[in-house]
C-alpha cells in the first residue's frame, strides 16, 4: 500500500511538472521578458565588436560613454546611435562626482553632455562614475534636467573573471534588470565573449533586450 502511494505521488509530481513546463511558453509569448544591457566607460576599441554581437540578436543597449572617448573617436558612438542604441552621458573623464566642487562638477557633466550632443544623441540620462552619489550630486543632476541611471546587476566584467563567469551573471539576472558591463576604454574581450554565450541562452528563454527608458 505504502509503495503504491509513493508511486502515485511520483506520477502526480511528474504530471504537474510536465503541465507547468507546457504552460510556461504560452505565458512568455504574451509578455516578453526584458533585460536592459548597459555598457559603460566607452567608447573604445571593443565597442564596434559589442555592436556586431548585439546586431546578431536584434538586441538594443544603452551606452554610457565618456565624453573624452566619444570626442577622440566619434565613429563607434555614431554607429551605435544609427543602429538604434542609446548613447548617454557617463561624464567627460570618469571622476567621482561626490569629490568635485561646483565648477569641476559642471565641467565634467556639461562636457559629457556636449560630447554626446555632438554625435547627435538627444539622451538626457546620466550615469555617475562608480555609481557615486550623495544628496548634493543628486540635486545637481536634477537641476541640469538630467535623469540619473544606476544598475541593479553588476557583472564586474572589468575584473576579467572569465567570459563564462560574466555570462552566468548576465543569464542569472532577474527579469527587468539593468545589467552593468563595459565596452571601453581598454580590452573588453571577455565581455564580448560573455555576450556571445549569454544572449543565445536568453533569447531561447524568451528575453528581449531594449534600451533603458526614458533614456
Ligand atoms: Zn564607469
Uncertain segments are 1-28
Helix content bin:
40-55%
Name every ligand kind in the structure.
zinc ion
If you consult CATH, what is the topology of the largest domain? TIM Barrel
Rg, nearest Å: 21 Å
Order of helices and strands: HEHEHHEHEHEEHEHE
Q: Choose one word for the global shape.
A: globular
- The CATH homologous superfamily name of the largest domain equals Glycoside hydrolase/deacetylase
Mean pLDDT: 90
Beta-strand content bin: 5-15%
Number of domains: 2
- Please outline the major beta sheet: 6 strands, parallel
Helix/strand class: alpha/beta
Specify the CATH architecture of the largest domain: Alpha-Beta Barrel
Please report the distance between the alpha carbons of the first and last residues: 64 Å
**In CATH, what is the class of the largest domain?**
Alpha Beta
In total, the number of strands is: 8
Helix count, per DSSP?
8
Secondary-structure blueprint of this entry?
Blueprint: H1 2-30, E1 33-40, H2 47-56, E2 62-65, H3 67-72, H4 75-82, E3 86-89, H5 102-118, E4 125-126, H6 135-143, E5 147-148, E6 153-154, H7 163-171, E7 178-182, H8 189-204, E8 207-209
Helix pairs in contact: 2-8, 7-8
Bound molecules: zinc ion.
Residues 40-41, 90, 94, 129 line the site of zinc ion.
